């Protein structure tokens, strides 16, 4: 398993389909194997202290699940008071995961380089968690239940869950009111797992402006619901069985508009445009989504004053 993750503008940040693929891949590699230890090398990465990482030593990995963009490794611990613990991991913008079949030849130094943590199995296999750049967001929580992690406990409904009906989606939109739909789709407390890239894709499929208010008519609501479910289902299906080393390129190659500023829209041929903010961008097709009208790029507008 090679690196997965990356920056916003290149569509590398893992979202629901990529994290689902990671969970499926890791489930096949990890379940039934025992943890030798979890070592952390970036102080900022480990967000919890009770239970300590040493409580995982010797425990058997019993499951790997996904909660939104979070990975969840369940570990049945050993000792005088056996229990189930969970290692919950969020890769953030620049977090990467690399599988190893053998133990590293040397013990890394704390705080040196991009290495954030290593999970070692009892047969020397395992994986490294790394994070590039200076802005650190990768998070590791060792907890007794996933709900002990605030950002997991407050997640909205999973958009691919059987219980995510059109009525549930409608309630989310009603609650958001006049908020811009792009931000609503990205809000983890409203809907779990969708980020910058897939919100662009969903809105393009739905032929809807990113600035459209969440309050909308029944026809628009239905069209957006279908686009959301189909876009995510297709992406999950496309990544099933894909080696994690290929997830970044697979995600990029499947994008219709995200990360494709200046290219031709695959539907109408118009030029894909972008709007840039301080720390992110989004892409859209004017013909398909905004009636041919380019949206105001606030950063560009400031530069042209």
TrEMBL record:
Keyword Cell membrane tagged: no
UniProt xrefs under InterPro entries: FPG_cat (IPR012319), FPG_N (IPR035937), H2TH_FPG (IPR015886), Ribosomal_uS13-like_H2TH (IPR010979), Znf_DNA_glyclase/AP_lyase (IPR000214)
Residue ranges occupied by any Formamidopyrimidine-DNA glycosylase catalytic domain in the UniProt entry: 14-161
SMART domains linked: Fapy_DNA_glyco (SM00898), H2TH (SM01232)
Molecular functions (GO terms): 8-oxo-7,8-dihydroguanine DNA N-glycosylase activity; damaged DNA binding; DNA-(apurinic or apyrimidinic site) endonuclease activity; lyase activity; zinc ion binding
Domain (FPG-type): residue spans on this chain: 256-290
Calcium among keywords: no
Keywords of the record: DNA damage, DNA repair, DNA-binding, Glycosidase, Hydrolase, Lyase, Metal-binding, Multifunctional enzyme, Zinc, Zinc-finger
Reactions accelerated catalytically: Hydrolysis of DNA containing ring-opened 7-methylguanine residues, releasing 2,6-diamino-4-hydroxy-5-(N-methyl)formamidopyrimidine
UniProt cross-references to Pfam families, sorted A to Z: Fapy_DNA_glyco (PF01149), H2TH (PF06831)
GO biological process, one term: base-excision repair
SUPFAM superfamilies linked: Glucocorticoid receptor-like (DNA-binding domain), N-terminal domain of MutM-like DNA repair proteins, S13-like H2TH domain
PANTHER family: FORMAMIDOPYRIMIDINE-DNA GLYCOSYLASE
Stated family: Belongs to the FPG family.
Protein name: Formamidopyrimidine-DNA glycosylase
Biological source species: Agrococcus jejuensis
């Amino acid at each position: 398993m090679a690196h997965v993750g990356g920056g916003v503008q290149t569509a590398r940040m893992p979202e629901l389909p990529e994290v689902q693929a990671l969970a499926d891949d890791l489930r096949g590699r990890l379940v039934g194997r025992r943890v030798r230890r979890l070592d952390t090398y970036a102080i900022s990465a480990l967000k919890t202290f009770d239970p300590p990482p040493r409580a995982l030593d010797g425990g058997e990995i019993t499951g790997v699940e996904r909660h939104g963009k979070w990975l969840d490794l369940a570990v049945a611990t050993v000792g005088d008071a056996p229990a189930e613990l969970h290692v919950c991991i969020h890769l953030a913008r620049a977090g990467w995961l690399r599988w190893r079949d053998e133990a590293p030849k040397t013990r890394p130094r704390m705080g040196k380089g991009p290495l954030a943590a290593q999970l070692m199995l009892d047969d020397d296999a395992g994986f490294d968690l790394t994070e590039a750049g200076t802005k650190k967001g990768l998070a590791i929580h060792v907890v007794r239940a996933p709900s002990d992690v605030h950002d997991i406990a407050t997640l909205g409904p999973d958009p691919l869950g059987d219980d995510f009906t059109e009525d549930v989606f409608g309630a989310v939109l009603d609650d958001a009111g006049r908020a811009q739909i792009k931000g609503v789709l990205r809000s983890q407390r409203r809907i779990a797992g969708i980020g910058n890239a897939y919100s662009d894709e969903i809105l393009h499929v739905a032929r809807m402006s990113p600035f459209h208010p969440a309050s909308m008519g029944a026809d628009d609501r239905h069209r957006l619901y279908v686009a959301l479910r189909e876009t995510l289902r297709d992406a999950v299906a496309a990544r099933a069985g894909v080696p994690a080393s290929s997830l970044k390129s697979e995600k990029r190659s499947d994008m219709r508009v995200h990360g494709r500023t200046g290219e031709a829209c695959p539907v109408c041929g118009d030029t894909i445009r972008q709007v840039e903010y301080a720390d992110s961008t989004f892409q859209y097709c004017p013909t398909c989504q905004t009636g041919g009208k380019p949206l105001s790029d606030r950063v560009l507008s400031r530069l042209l004053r």
